[in-house]
Amino acid sequence: MDDTTPVVRIEPWSEGDFELLRALNAPEMTEHLGGPEPEGKLAERHRRYVALSTDRSGAGRMYRVVPTAGGEPVGSIGFWRKSWRGGEVYETGWAILPGFQGRGAATAATLAVVEEARAAGGHRHLHAFPSVDNVPSNVVCRKAGFSLMGQCDFEYPPGTPLRSNDWRLDLGGPEAGGDGGDPEQQ
Fold first, then answer.
1. Which of 43, 83, 146, 179 is the most exposed, fewest CB within 10 Å of its CB?
2. pTM value?
3. Res. 102: pLDDT tops 80
């Protein structure tokens, strides 16, 4: 494998990926997301991931992250529609199991999902909203070519305040409008 070969590939999320989602729900994996979800919420999330992965309306898609050398999935990534600052955009998010972090898996998966979001069309921008304290995820955004738009506040999960960075990548698609534009003009 040369330096241009991705270390991972992405495959559509499926019914059989619940145990991966359970592994990604560990306390060390959800530190910047308000902690692990209860089992019932996790099952709901899995059903949403499966439904999104079979949706062909352009609403988005969820994927498992798999090493190109083979083996079990090492994480998840996806993109989905989000209302943001008066318009519709795509949002992305990812999680890579601890044993595979720091090896370029998140960046490679993000680059792959950028291409999937670009191919889906429908929205000009893809945003990522990692916690300001989540240094590795903010580095992934920078390495994947996103531009830092500034900080913003979220509740995630609902009821839990989260201070995030708003990273944006231009997909070159149609302008859906209202996704924040230039932060200096707001």
1. 83
2. 0.87
3. yes
